[in-house]
Amino acid sequence: MSSRPDPRTPNPAPLSSVAPRAPQRKRFASNAGFIALALPLAVFLAFIVYMFVYLLANGAPMLSWRFLTQPPQNGMTEGGILPCIVGTVMVTFVSLVFSIPVGIFAGIYLSEYAPDNILTRLIRSSIRSLAGIPSIVYGLFGVALFVAALRLGLSILASGLTLGLMNLPWIISTAEESITAIPSSFREGALALGTTKWEAIRHNVLPFAFPGILTGVLLALARTMGETAPILFTGVTYFTRELPHSLLGKFMALPYHLFALTTQHDQVMKVRPIAFGTALVLLALVLAFDAVAFAIRMRLAGANKWQV
Amino acid sequence: MNDTKIAIEKLNLWFSANHVLKDVSLNIPPNAVTAIMGPSGCGKSTLLRCLNRMNDLVLDARITGRILIDGRDIFGPDTDVIELRKRVGMVFQKPNPFPKSIYENITFGPRIHKMGGPDEIQALVERTLRAANLWNEVKDRLPDNAFSLSGGQQQRLCLARALSVSPEIILLDEPASALDPASTARLEELVVQLKQQYTIVIVTHNMQQAARVSDYCAFLMLGELVERGPTAQVFTKPSDKRTEDFLAGKFG
């Protein structure tokens, strides 16, 4: 270290004696690194695969046309889960009707119009924090606001709005982020042609932010379908003989049905297969929506070449 | 220069506390190419973006002084920014075609401004693409995504797009800085052609480019307008030592 190599010697001896060992050590380090990174993924995948196989093995035998189109019968030990499917779809629909427009417009406002000051920064971080609030707290809030104060009672509407409120921070954040990610040259190009700010956003920003926004909506949707706590307080019920015929009625839902069959039923072991069937249907519904979103995203991503 | 299209009078601009343009006064004649040159960061792009009020988008920008286009103050209360930007088209430093088809890139502005029916818009696409010397290269692939074009073609498409809303003035913000020499040459040729019909202001840090395309030029340094005049005169007999140094390549 202390003696400088003689510039006239092209290849100093000590270096060459060290050289052969270095690649080996490097190779080991790189292999170890690869394993350290790949192993957690493998463990994670193993869990997922196991869960799927287990669910399929236990739930698939239950699946039949009858199971999907009949209400529960004989004290929920027989029959199907139609009211639960209908209830879950309706409550999810209500939540999205509320949270999609509000969330997207709020996202547009935050990314394009809101000035950057302490107030808006506070609002932004509040929205991020809201996304992390336990869903049962939303449930409690839903009881207070929708069920009691707005007199919606225990109903699909109250549950749907509660779920929508819970979704809102997720939809706002992803909408804002995907809009901000659109290059400012798209906006400037449009403005330079004499469009108004809204025209530039409407025609030259939103269409390209759409795949990102859709992802946010779909993630919210998947979460909504599986949530139990917010609907538990606001409208879901253990059993109804009929399908809901208004938004102001109580309803059955897949996740709560699953919970009821697994822990509240007096013949838990007997209804276990129905519980697995219910879980499988819930999962299939979520995955079906994810698949639709994925397909839309792929098509749109093909059209938006600037992303590549 | 008694014939004036754009008159900039004692223009000052600040971004927050940063004094970017200092007492700039400049007359820009119609149907000619005026080049604004100067070293990087001298404020030449900012000056250009004042002419179509693109600096309005910068929140903490503050402006004093006047810019008159055809004798009317563009910062005046009776000026509609939308109208102004239709009259004053702009081509940006980096080609920024919209991620749409070549056809839709041209029709975007006219559609929003509802400039005529389908037939007129069809004719306009051909006319503007021809004006931008691009028609022969793209006429068979109008539905293709604009991003499939080369950089030089994209920039000419952006120019055609700027022409689509029938401007009187075209602002070019270092339009060739991202282009190869061949594309640059084609673009410069086009600029010279277009001055028949339009008033052109081009910003460049490349003085050879300014010499090749412009009739008049102005030299901006650290926000101050150091020199202005007919290009031939500025290049051969600069009146200011700083211009001379710049032209001699001492900085830039």
Shape of chain B: globular
- Give the integer mean of the pLDDT values of chain B: 91
Rounded to the nearest angstrom, the distance between the terminal CA atoms of chain B is 28 Å
Strand order of the largest sheet of chain B: 6-7-8-3-9-10
Q: Briefly note the CATH topology name of the largest domain in chain A.
A: MetI-like fold
Q: Any idea what the radius of gyration of chain A is?
A: 27 Å
Helix and strand arrangement:
The complex is a heterodimer of chains A (308) and B (252).
Chain A: H1 13-18, H2 21-59, H3 65-69, E1 72-73, E2 78-79, H4 82-113, H5 118-131, H6 135-149, H7 156-180, H8 184-192, H9 197-204, H10 206-226, H11 229-234, H12 254-264, H13 268-303
Antiparallel strand pairs in A: 1-2
Helix pairs in contact in A: 2-13, 4-7, 4-10, 5-7, 6-7, 7-10, 8-9, 10-13, 12-13
Chain B: E1 6-15, E2 18-28, E3 33-37, H1 44-51, E4 61-69, E5 72-73, H2 81-87, E6 88-91, H3 102-112, H4 118-131, H5 135-138, H6 151-163, E7 169-173, H7 181-194, E8 199-204, H8 207-213, E9 216-221, E10 224-230, H9 231-236, H10 241-247
Parallel strand pairs in B: 3-8, 3-9, 6-7, 7-8
Antiparallel strand pairs in B: 1-2, 1-4, 4-5, 9-10
Helix pairs in contact in B: 3-4, 3-6, 4-6, 6-7
Explain the overall architecture:
With 308 residues, chain A is an all-alpha fold. Chain A contains 13 helices and two strands; from the N terminus they run αααββαααααααααα. Chain A has a two-stranded antiparallel ribbon. The two termini of chain A are 48 Å apart. By secondary structure, chain B is α/β, with parallel strands linked by helices. Chain B has one domain (6-247): P-loop containing nucleotide triphosphate hydrolases (Rossmann fold). Chain B is 36% helix and 26% strand. The relative contact order of chain B is 0.18. The A-B interface holds A 115-116, 183, 185-186, 188-196, 199, 203-204, 208, 303-306 and B 52, 54, 57, 59, 82-86, 89-90, 92, 94, 96-99, 108-109, 112-113, 145, 147-148, 158, 161-162, 164-165.
